[in-house]
């Protein structure tokens, strides 16, 4: 098997729980997930299967789209409704225009402080583990990019937004920051991931598989999750060279990392530019054996 499952993760289960469901069916074949969703969240969870697990680092880089609901007038140590929720003293309820202006201000590149209750590692330990033990957690700010953000609905204290953003963006932290600018506080109460790259929630499947055949039938082309990468259709001669680990010369390619594909849209290899030359070497091959 070589492909990706676009799974609609239900609320109340972890991303690892979904992987375990797939793993039990296809064992000993490898699987994993690309992009964790908290138990509170629902929606698109991509589960690479077989050799596609080697693409996880590239899938992580794909843009993601979310629909999130926040409740103003509250704060939380976890930045969502599952933590210790505290009322926030709001001097004045914001108007729709004020909310719109503040939300619009989050479009573009910015620095974000990750939540203390996150899976990021601090000295080899998960941040949320240290936080639960009452130990201090220091996480560095990270640069993110919000490509598009839109207010879907607002009726105080409920605010719903749609966000298309770079990998590594914490939506509950985005809500926290929106609440700070509005001087109302905010906690995330609902989150649905509606897309990763070109893979949409409307085409996601339920995590219900009883046989390897069920899994194989649900697999999608890995290129669907790698839409942001430049592609190069390889000639037969180029394929032969790359299969043997040799470099090829491609003057027309712009990016330093490119996907080598067949004429029938099959991923064959991941190529990397050698220094600043026109030479590319294969770093991950997926040629049929």
Brief characterization of the structure:
Helices cover 20% and strands 35% of the residues. By secondary structure, it is an alpha+beta fold. Strands 1, 2, 3, 6, 9, 10, 11 and 12 form an eight-stranded mixed β-sheet that branches. It has a five-stranded mixed β-sheet with strand order 13-15-16-17-14.
Oligomer: single chain
Class from secondary-structure proportions: alpha+beta
Task: Give start-end ranges of low-pLDDT stretches.
Answer: none
User: Which CATH first-tier class of the largest domain would you pick?
Assistant: Alpha Beta
Strand content range: 25-35%
Instruction: Output the number of helix runs.
Output: 7
| Strand count | 17
Total tally of structural domains: 3
Helix content: 10-25%
Known CATH architecture of the largest domain: 2-Layer Sandwich
H/E order of the elements? EHEHEEEHEEEHEEHEEHEHEEEE
Largest sheet: 8 strands, mixed
- Calculate Rg over CA atoms: 21 Å
Q: How far do the termini sit from each other?
A: 12 Å
Task: Give the rounded overall mean pLDDT.
Answer: 92
Assign the CATH topology of the largest domain: Pseudouridine synthase
Broad shape:
globular
Please identify which CATH superfamily of the largest domain we are dealing with: Pseudouridine synthase
3D architecture notes:
The protein has 289 residues and is an alpha+beta fold. The protein has three domains: 2-62 and 198-225, Pseudouridine synthase (2-Layer Sandwich); 64-192, Pseudouridine synthase (2-Layer Sandwich); 230-285, Archaeosine Trna-guanine Transglycosylase, Chain: A, domain 4, CATH 2.30.130. The protein is 20% helix and 35% strand. The protein is globular and about 70 Å long. The two termini are 12 Å apart. 34% of the residues are buried.
């Amino acid at each position: 098997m070589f492909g990706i499952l676009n799974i609609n993760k239900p609320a109340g289960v972890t991303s690892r729980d979904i992987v375990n469901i797939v793993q039990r069916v296809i064992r000993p074949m490898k699987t994993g997930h690309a992009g964790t969703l908290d138990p509170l969240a629902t929606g698109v969870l991509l589960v690479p299967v077989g050799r596609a697990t080697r693409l996880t680092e590239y899938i992580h880089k794909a843009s993601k789209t979310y629909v999130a609901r926040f409740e103003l007038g509250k704060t939380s140590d976890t930045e969502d409704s599952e933590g210790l929720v505290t009322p926030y003293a709001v001097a004045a309820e914001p108007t729709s225009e004020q909310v719109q202006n503040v939300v619009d201000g989050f479009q573009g590149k910015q620095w974000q402080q990750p939540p203390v209750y996150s899976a990021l590692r601090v000295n080899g330990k998960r941040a949320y583990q240290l936080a639960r033990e009452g130990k201090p957690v220091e996480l560095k700010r990270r640069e993110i990019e919000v490509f598009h953000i839109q207010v879907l609905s607002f009726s105080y204290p409920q605010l719903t937004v749609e966000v298309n953003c770079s990998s590594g963006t914490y939506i509950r932290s985005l809500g926290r920051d929106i609440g700070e600018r509005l001087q109302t506080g905010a906690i995330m109460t609902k989150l649905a991931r509606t897309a990763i790259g070109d893979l949409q929630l409307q085409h996601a499947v339920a995590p219900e598989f009883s046989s390897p055949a069920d899994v194989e039938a649900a697999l999608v082309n890995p290129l669907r999750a790698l839409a942001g990468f430049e592609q190069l259709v390889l000639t037969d001669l180029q394929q032969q060279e790359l299969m043997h680990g040799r470099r090829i010369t491609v003057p027309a390619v712009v990016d330093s990392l490119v996907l080598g594909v067949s004429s029938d849209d099959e991923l064959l290899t991941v190529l990397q530019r050698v220094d600043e030359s026109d030479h590319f070497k294969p770093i991950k091959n997926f040629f049929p054996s």
